[in-house]
Amino acid sequence: MRLAGKRAIVTGAGSGFGEGIARRFVAEGAKVAIADINEAAGKRVAAELGEAALFIATDVTDDRSVRAMTGQVTEAWGGIDIHVNNAGWTTKRQSLLDVTEADFERMFSVNCKSIFLCTRHIVPVMQQASGGVIINIASTAGVRPRPGLTWYNATKGAAITMTKSMAAELAGDRIRVNAINPVIGATGLLESFMGLPDTPENRASFLATIPLGRMSEPRDIANAALYLASDEADFITGVCMEVDGGRCI
Fold first, then answer.
1. What percent of the chain has pLDDT over 70?
2. Which residue intervals of the chain are DSSP H helices?
3. Model-level pTM?
4. Catalytic residues
């Protein structure tokens, strides 16, 4: 019960890493807002988690939607102790010259603008409470980029830099800001990252680049998020933790 009594928001919590984080947070005593644009997925997760979870239909690229999400959580629970910027999107792996302007803008909106919007609305709530924790789900792509994902890599590099700058600026408000850099995982974006069909042979080529020999799983990211959100990490800020099986060595 390392998060007993804490109130958290996890964006993109209807599946993948976000769902894993939400489940772990609830298991550790937190109330969690499942914020997702996919209503069916978000409602499923919230229903399975029971009274400790609250689904909020949210478009993290839209200021009014993020403002409404923040207001709904504060009205329901009286504050926000933990916020996880997990929602993300990518194009399929391809030449940097083949990415359309629309896809470029969508990637930066979902992966970067969302952090800006959530910060604008959630940080004042944390400041009033004299503290809080923000966790940005970045990627090893921002540290050791793969060819074919140049503009996605750029969004995650931006998320890492934002994390460090936010940590420096918000430390005086006792708001800790950290990031998690997962390696490729078996989520809904797997085939986009590979740029290939999800076959045993194609997976094997990716696994060969990960020293510990497997992809990341939601539980790996959830465990890291739990530590960074807990009081055990109360002197940790500005860290970008690689959860990558050694990929970035």
1. 98
2. 16-27, 39-49, 63-77, 101-108, 114-128, 150-170, 190-194, 200-207, 218-229
3. 0.95
4. 152
